[in-house]
From TrEMBL:
Cited PANTHER family: PHAGE INTEGRASE-RELATED, PROPHAGE INTEGRASE INTD-RELATED
Keyword Cell cycle among record annotations: no
Organism: Rhodopirellula sallentina SM41
Name of the featured protein: Integrase-recombinase protein
Region (Disordered): 24-51, 202-231, 443-492
Length: 515
């Protein structure tokens, strides 16, 4: 039988309680922290100590659900009649489940609608962590989800809708197409998670708890990143790369030697102790090696931060090992080392322990790079709005691989790209490619300056053509009779073109386009 009641709880005896007898029962009386007088029946706990029984302030509904299971549900009602109304709703839902009008899954989805959206986001972030997603990506995802919720007014699952998100995204004037698409991908993934879709490796499956019946962001359109890039990276030229390395190696000591005020302001005459001088020189060498390693390996700065001496191999073919946990795509890679870079790294780590980091990559490396660019006289932003930043060093890797004639597939492997179009388009600065030299590798074709406009009939001219039989001559005469509108010159040209067409392929030549 369904009913509503107030639950009773057993609590420890208040320290200032006074026990009195009333109608054959022991009653505890005390004053609570707010100065109110309270009383409760005394009972004995399992350990034999006196305790008090207290009654809940709200009613609980007890009933049998649609699957025949007895449930106790807190109504949240202080009024008994209101609690009975809530019980009637629960009984009505149980009847609908029994007759198949709704399912238990629908009921659970309804329960999730009562949970604040912030709690769902927190559980989604926890799921990302258990799946081993990159920590930086998780942090960015959480920050952007919360920012969009605040901007769109999303508080509950029922608030989620694509139109509100689209309006908010379009209202961010400084947002690039790449960031816009990042938000779209994030909210689509979150929507899939809410519908119970889970990823096992790269395979999606409907194995999670369903919180929504459908993804409200499914089919959300993206913007064209190629035509709306806010920060287009530009590659460094050979001269700029060398100037950058030179100034990076010298600048720490030069800054220490430079006098900032007084009559010698701007002059490098400050006194620097030998110990500090050696430390600054080593710091400069480390910065130059950081830039050189980024340029000649295509490593990302966060990947470089994780490398240790034990990740280096200086055998016949030098390379470094990038662990899957430290790589962006989480696959793990073996990165080849250019011979001169390998020699520099061997000398640099000679006195390090196997577990030591190769470089102490500063968190403010971008700020340091900007200062090095100024000191080297290199424009950070060129006339085409191309910018030099840390990731532009990786762009320089791809560009100079292409400029050196490295095959696209090999360049893709060096850059560790899943899509060759990314290597050839995004990570190759076409302005630095030697296009004029490349076209010189195309086949040499000759065109005679005195070629006749009306080519001679090779039969008439006797040019390497077998003599015609009587039947061939008759056929030729018939063809001339059939098409009186064609001039004799046009017929001659056609025969000449057919018999002298280029039936043989041009000789293959070594070409940058085929490498």
């Amino acid at each position: 039988m369904a009913s509503v009641f107030k639950k009773t709880y057993v609590r420890p005896m208040p320290a200032n309680a006074e026990i009195v007898s009333r109608q054959g029962k022991q009653i505890a009386r005390w004053t609570d922290g707010k100065g109110r007088k309270r009383s409760a029946e005394v009972t004995t706990g399992k350990d034999g100590s006196p305790r008090i029984k207290t009654e809940a302030s709200t009613y609980t509904a007890k009933y049998r659900d649609g699957e025949g299971i007895v449930r106790e549900v807190a109504t949240g009602c202080r009024d008994k009649q209101a609690a009975k109304t809530k019980l009637a709703e629960l009984l009505s839902i149980a009847d609908k489940v029994r007759v198949g009008s709704i399912t238990t899954t629908d009921l659970k989805i309804g329960d999730h609608n009562k949970i604040p959206l912030a709690d769902h986001i927190a559980q989604y972030i926890t799921d990302l962590k258990t799946r081993g997603v990159n920590a930086d990506r998780i942090k960015t995802s959480e920050t952007r989800l919360k920012a969009a919720c605040d901007g769109c007014g999303f508080r509950w699952l029922r608030d989620l809708n694509a139109d509100a998100l689209r309006k908010w995204l379009r209202g961010q004037p400084e947002m690039s197409a790449a960031t816009y698409n990042w938000h779209v991908t994030l909210w689509t993934a979150f929507g899939n998670w809410l519908t119970g879709i889970r990823l096992q490796g790269k395979r999606p499956s409907q194995t999670g708890e369903r919180r929504l019946t459908s993804n409200p962001f499914d089919g959300f359109g993206k913007r064209d990143e190629k035509s709306d890039r806010k920060r287009v990276a530009r590659s460094l030229t050979r001269d700029e790369m060398q100037r950058l390395l030179d100034i990076a190696q010298r600048r720490p000591l030069q800054d220490a030697l430079t006098v900032r005020r007084g009559k010698n302001a701007g002059k490098q005459v400050a006194k620097v102790p030998d110990a500090r001088r050696a430390k600054l020189e080593r710091l400069g060498t480390e910065r130059a090696l950081i830039y050189k390693t980024l340029i000649l390996t295509g490593l990302r700065s966060n990947e470089l931060r994780t490398l240790r001496k034990s990740d280096l191999s200086f055998g016949d073919v030098p390379f470094l090992i990038l662990k899957s946990s430290n790589e962006k795509n989480r696959k793990g890679s073996t990165v080849p080392l250019k011979s001169d870079l390998a020699a520099d790294l061997r000398a640099w780590v000679a006195d390090k322990a196997p577990g030591d980091l190769i470089f102490n990559v500063p968190t403010g490396l971008l700020r340091i790079l900007n200062r090095d660019l100024i000191a080297a006289g290199i424009d950070k932003v060129d006339e085409n709005e191309g910018r030099i930043h840390l990731h532009a060093l990786r762009h320089s890797t791809g560009t100079h691989l292409s400029a050196a004639g490295v095959s696209p597939r090999t360049a893709q492997a060096v850059m560790r790209h899943s899509d060759i179009a990314l290597t050839m388009n995004t990570y190759t600065d076409e302005r630095l490619l030697e296009t004029s030299a490349a076209v010189e590798h195309l086949p040499t074709l000759s065109v005679s300056s005195d070629a006749p406009m009306d080519a001679p009939n090779p039969v008439q001219a006797g040019q390497n053509s077998p003599s015609l039989t009587e039947s061939d001559k008759a056929t030729r005469d018939r063809e001339s009779t059939k098409k009186p509108s064609d001039s004799q010159g046009m017929l001659s040209f056609r025969k000449w073109a057919i018999e002298n067409s280029n039936l043989w392929p041009l000789p293959c030549e070594s070409s940058a386009l085929t490498n």
